[in-house]
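Ligand: 6-O-phosphono-beta-D-glucopyranose. Inputs:
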Amino acid sequence: MDDIEDRNGIIFIIFGVTGDLTRRKLIPALYELLLVDKLPQPFTIVGFARRDWTDAFMVDTLMEGLRTNLRRVPVQEANGRQLFEKAAYVQSSFDEDEGYKRLGEYLAQVQAKNVIFYLATPPDAYLDIIRNIDKYKLKQIPSGWVRIVIEKPYGNNLESADELEYEVHKAFRERQIYRIDHYLGKETVQNILVLRFANGIFEPLWDRRYVDHVQITVAETHGVGTRAGYYEGAGVIRDMFQNHLLQLLTLTAMEAPVSFNADSVRDEKVKILNSLRPLTGIDAIKDTYRAQYVSGMVDGSRIPGYKDIEGVAPDSTTETYLAARLFVDNWRWAGVPFYMRSGKSLPARLTQIAIHFRQAPLSLFDWKNMAGDAPNVLVLNIQPNEGITLTFGAKLPGPGNQIAPVKMDFSYLESFGDEPPEAYIRLLLDCLTGDATLFTRSDEVLAQWKFTNNILNAWASNPVKNLPVYEAGTWGPDGADVFIAQDGRKWRNEIG
Ligand code: BG6
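Predicted complex:
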């Protein structure tokens, strides 16, 4: 790991600096790191993009972006000036030699030592950028280190991910490559491992003997908005399932790593991905459920249906809702279903992992059970209301004989007095210090694609004319409830 106080400073090159991600996430995160003295100095931002911007225009635009997007702290002009000191802009398309030549000259002229290449462009530019970094030897820095950060989507299927892997490995060593899944930067996602492995009480219960099933939900209220161009070719499966949902599953299911370092943690995660029962052919059809939203009310406003969005084909079968039944075929989890679901335009923003424990072995209380059939649920609230709750049955006070569900509640905000920081702050800091634990490793991303590809292939071989639809602002079509009810279970739609 490199020292954060690295005297040689860092040149942080953002490909796609004019885009939304840079303005909304990267620059605010760098600014917050600067405020807490975590940005090695000198720190120089170099933007690279197609638009006809100048150095000064880039700085003004990014400053403006900071003012709109910084959530937790006010923007001070002086700090802004420090962040953008010596900032430079290279105007070029991503497949044009000239831009890379100029970037090379710049790096030589400033005698760059430590360099981070950050790919924040649309994914179709990745190959060009990586090939040109290699061709123009931009990573051949005489001393110091070089890293590359690659945003998701990392490929569009197994084949394209493989091709990307091939190219990136021609130019970089694995330890220089930081593949981002921003869910791993979320504080409460990291807390899954702390809950499991820093406490003695949960782990003994964490297996097929005590767990009935697990539900992993990533629900969003917003629709596809202006992203139809990307989303039509992605759907929930590529946008959320292949990455964020599978990551949540691996952290929930993995064995304790031999130590908390990047490779040990990722070794265990990969084992889980390799233990997933493949969903191929008819199994993939049976164990997944897709749907698409039509116009409806979300947060008090009517939103257009998916097919009403410009850029969406009238006969589109891209799913905006996906539920899946997965099994981790290993000793710990044999026979325990993991129900996964994610959707756009649902009634609540909610990311949670709910561990539903088995019922008591014998029903001693012949009482009215308001707690439901399986009252013991441990819920990890990733967002919002970050925290953890454990539900169990207690006797309702009074002369009657009734069992009611009650909760033990840990709230991140109440306990620590603040909301968890933005994921990008943690991820960028880790990249600056050379810690890849929260980034996806090569074999991991390929294992995620391998699993997902089977489903994609099965869907492609069994094409449907239309998907079931749900009104925006609802928890999906009735079919989604039937999907889980077939196993005698029910979706947990509760926040907290
Ligand atoms: C992104 C997806 O990776 O994650 C988006 O492309 C999605 O479609 C977003 O909205 C969700 O992230 P978060 O942090 O808001 O839960």
